[in-house]
């Protein structure tokens, strides 16, 4: 098979399906991998390129992903699981981890942030609570020693369970039992200028009280909204109210110089019988309406000059996640690249090609051309 024939077949394989819609989403995407049926990182790279997504969040430092995305325009948040926090309080172990898992990928892969643990305060493990700040500080100091602190920052992601009051937003406050830990963490963020990350899910509020929480309010649909009686600011959706509640809680601890980012938000397309609202229609409305607002660079009522910064959860459904059915159905895409529902954007995931021995040589040429083209498209 000639090179031109292989190229023609390659283009036929790529574009014989639905047309690609290129659209900059303006959001980040969480790339969870608790599954046994996900596409390879190289195919995921092409999907993100077709969507014009340039920010991705991992829950680890998977070298296969980080190598695949070298020389691309994708900024990465990488993660250290809760189980690593005790070791990361040791300066030698923290430096070794950075030298082995982060430094080899820089600068060709754009790693911009490391999250230390995930929803640590949801564990009720007090030893883990005590390890969080020292681990953050130790890893940051190791970044400084390695000369990497200007390009890589350190933070952690928290569930909204850390709030004792979330409404009205202006009265937002952290739980009293967490104050001694959060004071130090907020001081750290202010000092190193890293963001405070929250995993915010209006879905949970609706699921727990479907008869009291208006569905339109949590789905960004037209609704009467609610007014903060202290500030008279009007909220037409719960997510923005949650963000402002966190800002208020941070301010109550003496800080007005820390940015809040949404490290996770989303809506499940399917759930168990007792998981109200988990449908493809609602998931499509939530994420579709959210993307429109992000494209408009909307801000929250209390922070009118700070556009909302969001990482949507998640890129794919993950079939091995434990818990209720909803946990396995947050993806925008099925692992085969088919959209779970319509949110107004369409990407493209190159298909897997299965063949007989008689055509292996021809498809080997096509495969080589495929990876050359993917590499070119990603680096363009």
From TrEMBL:
GO terms for molecular function: glucan endo-1,3-beta-D-glucosidase activity. Residues 1-24 form the signal peptide. GO terms for cellular component: plasma membrane. The keyword Transmembrane helix applies. It is an enzyme of class 3 (hydrolase). It catalyses: Hydrolysis of (1->3)-beta-D-glucosidic linkages in (1->3)-beta-D-glucans. It comes from the Eukaryota. This is glucan endo-1,3-beta-D-glucosidase. It comes from Gossypium hirsutum. The lineage of its organism: Eukaryota, Viridiplantae, Streptophyta, Embryophyta, Tracheophyta. The gene is LOC107954133.
């Amino acid at each position: 098979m000639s090179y031109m024939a292989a190229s023609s077949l390659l283009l036929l394989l790529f574009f014989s399906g639905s047309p690609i819609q290129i659209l900059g989403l303006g959001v980040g995407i969480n790339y969870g991998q608790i599954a046994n049926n996900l596409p390879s990182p190289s195919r995921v790279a092409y999907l993100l390129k077709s969507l014009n997504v340039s920010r991705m969040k991992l829950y680890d430092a998977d070298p296969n992903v980080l190598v695949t995305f070298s020389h691309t325009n994708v900024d990465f948040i990488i993660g250290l699981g809760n189980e690593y926090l005790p070791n990361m309080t040791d300066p030698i172990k923290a430096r070794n981890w950075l030298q082995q898992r982060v430094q080899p990928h820089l600068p060709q892969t754009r790693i911009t942030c490391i999250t230390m643990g995930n929803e640590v305060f949801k564990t009720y493990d007090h030893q883990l609570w005590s390890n969080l700040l020292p681990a953050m500080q130790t890893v940051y100091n190791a970044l400084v020693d390695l000369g990497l602190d200007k390009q890589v920052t350190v933070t952690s992601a928290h569930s909204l369970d850390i709030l004792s009051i979330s409404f009205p937003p202006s009265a937002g406050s952290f739980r009293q039992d967490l104050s001694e830990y959060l004071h130090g963490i907020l001081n750290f963020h202010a000092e190193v200028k890293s963001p405070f990350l929250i995993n915010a899910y209006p879905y949970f509020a609706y699921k727990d009280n479907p008869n009291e929480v208006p569905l339109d309010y949590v789905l960004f649909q037209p609704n009467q909204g609610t007014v903060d009686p202290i500030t008279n600011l009007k909220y037409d959706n719960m997510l923005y109210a949650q963000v402002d509640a966190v800002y208020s809680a941070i301010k109550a601890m003496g800080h007005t110089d820390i940015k809040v980012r949404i490290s996770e938000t989303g809506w499940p397309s399917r759930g168990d019988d007792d998981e109200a609202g988990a449908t493809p229609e609602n998931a499509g409305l939530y994420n579709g309406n959210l993307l429109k607002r992000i494209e408009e660079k909307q801000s929250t009522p209390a922070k009118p000059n700070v556009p909302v910064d969001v990482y949507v959860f998640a890129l794919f459904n993950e079939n091995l996640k434990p818990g209720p059915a909803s946990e396995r159905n947050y993806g925008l895409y099925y692992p085969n690249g088919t959209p779970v529902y319509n949110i107004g954007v369409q990407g493209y995931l190159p298909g897997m090609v299965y063949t007989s021995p008689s055509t292996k040589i021809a498809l080997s040429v096509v495969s080589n051309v495929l990876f050359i083209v993917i590499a070119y498209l990603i680096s363009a």
